[in-house]
């Protein structure tokens, strides 16, 4: 990968050294090269340490373009007096059908199972969007521990002195969704002023096999149909939980990013991920600008962006053998776009690139199977 050096400021922040015997030879490096080095450092804690090395470093760090903020902990609101109504949301299904034609039992079961799953997610709003007097993002996240005390600073506070950020990545300590050991659940969502697309990959269990198989451009030998047991043994209910909870987590993250997006107009790309690799929210420059100019449709009670009516596609395999030997039991892929979107939900280009390997390969294999169509109202 090649990097282009940025031109030095019109007037140097640090003057040219006058004598080769009275200065640090590091001072011979131009500002543009130092900024490139700081861009590679990226971590905001390390950049903070660089600031105390010299006045020159202290003056240059605010011009860094690539910044990484690793959040140490998430502060939740344990106020038990808040009513359930403050964190409740509603979801209505319009229709669910098999892309091939059949699917009555799928639709009926979906309507039956979505109602009981609301309560487990009522606490998610408390964790991601606690009621505090300061802004939602500042109150929800604490990022950097002062080495001399226990004070915490939010990403908004930490980034306020950076004026040229182009790429920003914020990493949460864990994913928001508590899932049982052995279950695979990953999601990726792109947002503008609202949801642009979301991809969810899940499996009821992951088995690591020593045998490496060649499945390039192949599909399992079964028919690709969802077995009847999927509707009766809780398999469908589990996937409904995965889908709704992933959408809630993504929309909550998006809601909490508003202060940073509005303050840093230079951003070209923003990524909010977690150390567990559970979920990734991405926004490019066009989407960032859309959020700044378009009023955000949000729920102040649940502290999340409202999700519009959705078109969804689901692919399922009872067992999926990946080329590296990994076996996914009950592998499920869900692709989601707003109903009003002109983009095709099944566009293979964004489906296959949503996850890192070997899960990108799993997505490619799943989209070759039979497709099931779902629709969901806004919530």
TrEMBL record:
InterPro entries: AUF1-like, F-box-like_dom_sf, F-box_dom. Residues 27-61 form the F-box domain. PANTHER family: OS05G0510400 PROTEIN-RELATED. This is F-box domain-containing protein. It comes from Arabidopsis thaliana (Mouse-ear cress).
